[in-house]
Amino acid sequence: MNGLVLVYAGLAGLAIGSFLNVCVYRLPAGLSVVTPRSRCPQCERPIRWYENIPVASYIALRGRCRGCGERISLQYPLVELATGAIWVAMAARFGPTLAALSGAVFLTLLLGIALTDAREYIIPDEFSLGGLLLGLAFAALPGGMPFLHAVAGAAVGFGCLYLVAVAGQWIFRKEAMGGGDIKMMAMVGAFVGPWGALLTIFLGALLGTLIFGPISIVTKRLVPFGIFLALGAAVTHGWGDALIQWYWGLLSGTG
Q1: Local structure of 174: helix, strand or coil
Q2: Pick from 101, 106, 114, 75: nearest CA to 9
Q3: Phi, psi at 178, each rounded to 5°
Q4: Distance between CA atoms of residues 14 and 88, nearest Å
Q5: Which of 35, 68, 88, 170 could form an SS bridge with 43, CB 3.0 to 4.6 Å?
Q6: pTM for this prediction
Q7: Nearest partner of 113 among 216, 220, 231, judged by Cα
Q8: Which helix (H) or strand (E) holds 14?
Q9: Do you find a cis peptide bond into 36, omega within 30 degrees of 0?
Q10: CA distance between the termini of the chain
């Protein structure tokens, strides 16, 4: 693996992570991610370009606004570092290929979804529907997933959660599944295919029950299911084929 490829991937990931921070804060509020320029939420001083260099500016400013001294959220550099790590990992795994770019974009979208759902209980359409279009576009390119496989995955992901929502509404007489989760699974299916979509739903439900279930019982808070679907989709992207083969091996008695 050419080290320069990893360096370029890391720099691209850091820059995209900086933009992802903007999306996470602005999209749930229905704000433009282009204008106005980034500014301090406390003193509203516009942030200069040299104060907005991923990670480096946070360190140079010691985590505080140059104008008013207000502390800058640690989320900014952490998201930038996480996105940079995603892009480096995909480049290391797949090399300079379409699979690396597709995987990096997919995992970045999942990170954005997890953050917005955790903060606001919202999954913006820009992540879900925009990601669906990107997933189908990658599948349409030479070397990508077979296009009909991606379409089937989107249909399975959307259809399964839509049926859960309808059944839950009928049984419990209240909303059992948010529309954002349903649209998100269409996006996930476009990237991981129909079997991957089913595995994602299973893993998301399992993780949500084990991790957030007890908290929800005590606090009566709604489960931010998008977080756990994002975790399930990330596991599926990395190890889905092996998990599915292992499961079929158990069913057939050959595993």
Answers
A1: coil
A2: 101
A3: -75, 150
A4: 10
A5: 68
A6: 0.92
A7: 231
A8: helix 3-26
A9: yes
A10: 34
Mean pLDDT of the chain: 90
Cα torsion angle, 53, 59, 64, 67, sign: negative
In this predicted structure, what is the pLDDT of residue 219?
61
Could you give the 3-state DSSP secondary structure of residue 237? helix
User: Could you count the other beta carbons within 10 Å of the beta carbon of residue 102?
Assistant: 23
- 3-state secondary structure (DSSP) of residue 62: coil
Q: How far apart are CA 156 and CA 138, in angstroms?
A: 18
Cβ–Cβ under 8 Å, residues 39 and 45 = yes
Residue with tokens 């909303």: 175
What is the rounded CA–CA span in Å between residue 193 and residue 157?
9
Is 145 in contact with 139 (CB distance < 8 Å)? Answer: yes
| Distance separating alpha carbons of residues 208 and 28, to the nearest angstrom | 22
- What percent helix, strand, coil does the chain show, rounded to 5? 75, 0, 25
pLDDT, tens digit, 9 for 90 and up, residues 25-62: 999 999 999 888 888 878 888 888 888 899 999 999 98
Rounded alpha-carbon distances, angstroms, from residue 40 to 31, 47, 49, 52: 16, 7, 13, 11
Separation CA 248–CA 255 (nearest Å): 8
Half-sphere exposure of 192 (CA within 13 A, CB side): 32
Whole-angstrom Cα distance, residue 106 to residue 44? 33
SS (H, E, C) 122-147: CCCHHHHHHHHHHHHHHHHCCCCCCH
